[in-house]
Amino acid sequence: MTKVWAVYWREVQAYFLSPVAYVFMAVFLLLTGWFFAARLFATQYIEMQVVFANMTFMFVFIAPLLTMRLLAEERRMGTDEFLLTAPLTVGQIVVGKFLAAVTVYLAFLAVTGVYPWLLYRYGFPDWVTIGTGYLGVILVGAAYLAVGVLASSLTNSQMVAGLLGFGVLLLSLVVDRAAVVSTGLLAKVLQAISISARANGLYMGVLNVADLFYLISFTGGLLFLTVRVMERRRWL
Amino acid sequence: MLEVTAVTKLYGRATGVRDVSFGVAPGEIVGLLGPNGAGKTTIMRVVTGFLTATAGTVKVAGFDVVDQPLQARRHLGYLPEQPPVYPDMTVASYLDFVAQVREVPARERRARIGSAIEQLDLSSVSGRLIGNLSKGYRQRVGLAQALVHDPPLLVLDEPSSSLDPGQTVEMRNIVRRLGETRAVLLSSHILAEVERICARVVILKQGRVVAADRMDRLTRLLAVGTKLRIQVRGKRRDVDSVLAKVPKLESWELEDAGEDVVVGHLHPSSGADIRETLFFRLAEAGYPLLEVRPEVPGLESVFMELTGGAMPAHKPGKSASRSGVEVRGR
């Protein structure tokens, strides 16, 4: 556990000691702030459903940029020779790094806490819906970050890792759109595999075990694949 | 401490190393020597578990690096060719990170880091970012990383590459000191380095072991049947007539080198050690022998012999010019 913590903490420091995390945070908050304010002033509705959907949409662009460095850079700098010959399992490395990226994302979300506070200050927000909404945003964000982590394990170039992660996430958005416009069996299949569609229920306050299970196992599956990719490299 | 048995590593169809076996005992420094591309780094990566061997086994402190990877890795410290340091960390915070990952107990961490910093003389830079340090300091931080958990086996891939001559000597002393109590496996293409600090050498060529023996035996092997360079006080004609009476001496050339000093290049018949006879014959005749040494010094000629003349010093490229300087400088 100390070892996962060590990897995690090093990575968190790397995020916050460089300007990267702050720049992304600023962009993220500026845009979510805009969506929140515009929606609120236009409709006067005391709810955040649309803001949540917008947050995860924007995170499609930010997640690959946050994660692209994680494993690719280790390989480029040769520090993977330290990590992979230390008494650490690959799983510990991947989990430590993934949790560090999630922490940065949670820091973004923590600041968005002012929005529900504002709603509370001037109205009567539904706390349950806001709670499940945040749960959805966190789970979808974690899944996006896991896509980025896997992309980062496949190459030693940050640029390639970033583009690869971005491409996959854009594709998942295409799946979402396709699910909306198609009908019949196809619509059902597309809806089932879509990541963000899984969170729509949560944004509306519907806690569905199948959705939770899908999002969590999707993330876990990607991290497992990442471990396999890195383990395999020892044999090449 | 380290047992490498019949290790083969293939990269796709290309061979990294084939059927390599050797061992390193505690208190012993073993040098891994070979031209660039001979498989030195591959062996070190297999030994440390960074890569897995295609066939064969590696045991560190009795633990198989594939079956019991964590136990095996606990007993080794590894300095790769490129020091595995994070430029965005300070020396102290980096070593703290390494100590945590290397399972140094929290109580001992401060003391261990302190002693690593002291051993490698890093105290003046411990608060600086590694990215701002010179190459020599980075290399030392890399070595501190390898020994912060006090491992019984150290694997060092070209520890003094790209250091200046002063730093090279310093690094050599550090490694020699570490080797007093630990098992050290060191790779290098700087012959002088290996010759000075290693008790045993394993010479590789195209992924295979072509020689593995104690340093002194390898150099003795060399004294037999190779060209000798001698310096004698006397006249050329007189020395020439004495040499004619030395058995097993096939041919020689003499040249004048100043007042009453003759330099000779001797070719003994193969397998013959003529040094003693030479000494007595010249002494009897009254011509003092001022100097006798192998024409090509030390390990270098063994290396040339075994690797088919593929001296790194004669190969173009950055690393080659480095070792070239070393060889000429001796």
Query: What is the string of helix and strand elements of chain B?
Result: EEEHEEHEHHHEHEHEEHEHEEHEHH
- The total tally of domains of chain B equals 2
The number of E-state strands of chain A comes to 0
Overall mean pLDDT score of chain B? 83
Distance linking N and C termini of chain A: 29 Å
Per the CATH scheme, the topology name of the largest domain in chain B is Rossmann fold
Radius of gyration of chain A: 19 Å
The total of helices of chain A stands at 11
Decide which structural class fits the backbone of chain A: mainly alpha
Helix proportion of chain B: 25-40%
In CATH terms, the superfamily of the largest domain in chain B is P-loop containing nucleotide triphosphate hydrolases
Instruction: Report strand % of chain B.
Output: 25-35%
The DSSP helix count of chain B reads: 12
Name the helix and strand elements of chain A from N-terminus to C-terminus, one letter apiece: HHHHHHHHHHH
Q: Quote the average pLDDT of chain A.
A: 91
Count of individual domains of chain A: 1
Write the layout of secondary structure elements.
The complex is a heterodimer of chains A (236) and B (330).
Chain A: H1 2-17, H2 20-43, H3 49-77, H4 80-83, H5 90-111, H6 114-122, H7 127-153, H8 158-181, H9 184-193, H10 195-203, H11 209-233
Helix pairs in contact in A: 1-5, 2-3, 2-5, 3-5, 3-7, 3-8, 3-10, 5-7, 5-11, 7-8, 7-10, 7-11, 8-9, 10-11
Chain B: E1 2-11, E2 14-24, E3 29-33, H1 40-48, E4 55-60, E5 63-64, H2 69-74, E6 76-79, H3 91-101, H4 106-119, H5 135-147, E7 153-157, H6 165-178, E8 183-188, H7 191-197, E9 200-205, E10 208-214, H8 215-223, E11 228-233, H9 236-243, E12 249-256, E13 261-268, H10 275-285, E14 289-294, H11 299-306, H12 318-329
Parallel strand pairs in B: 3-8, 3-9, 6-7, 7-8
Antiparallel strand pairs in B: 1-2, 1-4, 4-5, 9-10, 11-13, 11-14, 12-13
